[in-house]
Amino acid sequence: MFALRRLARKHIGDCVDMELFGSKMRLYQRGNASEKRALFAPQFYDLEDRLALAGLAKDGAVFIDIGANIGLYSFSVARTFSNFDNTKIISVEPHPEIHRRLAFNRSLNPELPITLFRGGIGEKEGEMQLLTGAGNLGQTRILREEEAPHPESITVPIITLTALCSKFNLERIDGIKIDVEGFEEAVLLPFFESAPDSLLPRLIVIEDNRREWATDILATAAKRGYRIAKKTHMNLLLERS
Question: Quick one: how far is CA 106 from the chain centroid?
């Protein structure tokens, strides 16, 4: 696969228009590892995780994709969600360039129940600084409070997950995917503290960054009824009965 990928990259342009996961998408082969993976080996792109979220589909189902990147999870899940009535997918992405690519892909598939939010999710509302990973837009992360300002950082708006639910009038959440490069605590802990049971999702797919967490998110999740249902290549699947 890697040998074929190296050969193919020499003969294509900066981007490729293609059908992926049943949706029309434009993928760039440089600068974003997620796009490169999906372009050359989509069958290996978090298959178990995406299928678990797609399995939540039913009338009125809601999926929130936090750290949506260009929308690979969102579009994959949306194809199944679109077979049911009144489904909703909220794709959250703060980086301006990645969000531009996400919005373009969304424009190619107007029939899908995807709504975009340009911003981040944190423990409070306001603004934060984003720092792009070297050569990989998908590794963009929030600057920690103790870190010195970086000349290449980007200022983006953030809101809490609870505020996002209010903004989009959500009364239920069936699934959440969180890929925020180690800042999962800021997303989930305030939500677990304040969210009513009726708003807690049945499934949370979260990047396994346990070594970086200062607080045991899994123990906090367990108090709200979650258990680890599965560990995949990069993620943990938390289920709530």
Answer: 15
